[in-house]
Design a protein that fits this description.
By secondary structure, this protein is mainly α. The protein folds into 2 domains: 52 residues, no CATH class; 106 residues, no CATH class. It is 80% helix and 0% strand. The protein contains 7 helices and no strands. It is rod-shaped and about 110 Å long.
Length: 183
């Protein structure tokens, strides 16, 4: 019984001795160790985020290109897409301003559908373009400029579309369509 009592007292004394011990020695050891562990874990977090973004981008690229390729793979579909684009270009070169405006609206709608097939979601082309990253479509700035003209046609009642502006906007749409391998 005395041995049990002595063990109990020894345990309590050891416990309280922990609180009276000089912790500067522990801190001198723990600070560098915790700093190194923080660096290692920070490196792994950054590495994981970078790898995750690469994986997500490749998955998005694979799904976008495979859906687009499937949608335009058959020669009949490619021919139809090219014919539709030629009709839009003819309207865009028309002397009638309303025909030119309609051509730009059709081109905008065509790109809206194509980006939808590529996996981009949104109510309209503008919403889908906001999701596109710079590396996905090289002619993204041109596409935005053409879309802005389309928006002016749709929202400004008195907007005058010159033949030169229509041709320029359609060439910007065409550049994106070729880049997406739709035409």
């Amino acid at each position: 019984m005395q041995a049990l009592f002595d063990f109990y007292i020894y345990s309590i004394e050891s416990f309280f001795e922990l609180f009276t011990y000089d912790y500067r020695i522990y801190l001198a050891i723990l600070k560098p160790i915790s700093f190194l562990l923080s660096l290692v874990f920070g490196f792994f977090i950054i590495y994981s985020v970078v790898k995750f973004r690469q994986i997500m981008k490749s998955i998005k690229g694979i799904s976008s290109s495979s859906v687009l390729a499937a949608a335009t793979k058959s020669p009949e579909m490619q021919k139809k897409a090219f014919e539709n684009w030629q009709k839009i270009l003819e309207k865009g070169r028309s002397l009638d301003e309303n025909e030119r405006k309609f051509a730009l609206i059709e081109a905008d709608s065509m790109l809206d559908k194509i980006l939808g097939l590529a996996g981009y979601t949104g109510e309209n082309l503008g919403a889908k373009l906001k999701q596109v990253e710079r590396g996905d479509i090289e002619s993204l700035d041109d596409l935005w400029e053409a879309h802005k003209i389309r928006n002016r046609i749709a929202h400004e009642a008195g907007f005058k579309l010159t033949a030169e502006s229509a041709v320029l906007a359609l060439s910007r749409f065409e550049k994106a369509l070729k880049e997406l391998q739709y035409i």
